[in-house]
Amino acid sequence: LSDPLNVQVKVNASRTYDATVRAIFDSSVSNDAPAGYSVQALTPAAVEGAFQSKDVGANKPISFTGNKFAVLTASGKPVFGNTLTYVGDVTPATLTYNADSALRELGFPITGLTGNVSGLMGTETLAAATAGTLAWQTDATAVSPPGIYAVNGTGLSASNYIFTQAGGNATALTLMGINTPIATQQQALKGSDYALQTAPRTMLASISHPSLGFGGVFDISGPRAQACFGPVNLTSMRPEELAQLLDCRKDFKKRLFAEAIYKLEIDPGLADVPACMTAAEASTGSCRITTELLEASPRTEPQQTAPRAAKAALPQIQRKIAVLFGVNDYADRKIPHLENAVPDVEAVSRIFAEKLGYEVRVVRNPKKADIFRTLNELSTEVNASDSIVVYYAGHGLELEKNGAGYWIPSDAPVNDPSRWISNGDISKVLAGIRARQVAVISDSCYSGAFAREGTASVGHDVTAEEVLTKRSVVVLSSGGDEPVADEGKEGHSIFAWNLMKAVESVQNWLPGSTIFSEVQVGVKKEFPQTPKYGSLTAAGHQQGGDYLFEQRQAD
Known about the structure:
By secondary structure, this protein is an alpha/beta fold. The relative contact order is 0.09.
């Protein structure tokens, strides 16, 4: 037969780079055999071999075990002793630049754009597979008109990959004017980041967008923050200046918490805490105690011995406990520091102890778990004949979309509402407190969300005997649907100062509605905020009930 031939066989193994040397090919081939000869597979089955290396390239040598192809003459006779070289192509894989959605404000440098690169093969890392420095760029500038702009990734190169821009990059940046309504900002963010709307809750809370603020990044020491939340002399301000201050605070907080608000609009349950399954779990503060768990658990001994009452105007009431939470300092430094929340709860606690005979427990700068741990413990101690006050001073927020209200504890970030405390969860905890007399006093912005039910179910011209047969759960809030002042009267908030004056006026006892009227009149004389009073039927308030502020002096 013919002399042996040297034939290069190009097998059907060309593929995209996958960071391996695997080469899988079938019986179809091309070759450079001389005229009159052909190359055919000895088996129609797919054959697996190995490229000489994993990297991208053309006509890359492939090796495999055994003879898989034969050289034939034109008449179909085999030619033995041939040298066959097998080759195939490996083409580049694709890496995609994925820009994060971003909102920025007109008139400021556009910085802090972020994103990620996807498409890496196998266990490869971006640092190992690419060269250069990842960067994000946009054609928008500080003087560009409001609108939608592209954000594109750049700066990387790779021998085994090509780069492309994700489709969403073309609309990743929304440039807003300072007077653009926050709802429009949030809608723009939704339009450019649909994936957030379908993200699982565990992922949603961790999704991060650049802060939606003045110049794109909040600076709590900057001029805008200082103008809104810096120390001011309220007594020297004209009414129009006070109104401007409230508008400034309202706008600032909307922008500051815009990302978290957006997440809550997607999933209103992000801030919810689960029900406790065991008493041990309740002691961690990671859950809220339930009525069922309380009924199954024995009542615990009080944290401290109740002071003996030398004089009790309403001896039907046994223990009186006031738990007061004050938050001045926030771990997230973007949240403005408050001057008077902690001094307020300390001062209010003294008045409640000395004038009204309460056992007081002050919790300074509590985290979310601290608040629930304290309320869970309180729930296990009290009886129906006890009287309870829960007082909160700190930042608060209300959603315009559904009216839900939140307390912002010290460990709450601006962009993660999972560490906020919802009014709904507070109501659920209060529902488990077995005392007939329960009052929530909330000195925070937008705290009127707590008292939305109003006074329709609150008793009028009540007698103590009648009220104390009912379950009464009421809320006294420092403001309605507006920001409130945390300073202004002798080192205290205007609300706290007027509350203390009203409590000091108690002789014998007064219903909460009367205390509220005094506080509301005093506050509205000095600042354009509107305290609210109402019942919480979700926590078990009964028609005609009210909270009784009783004078009591302890031995």
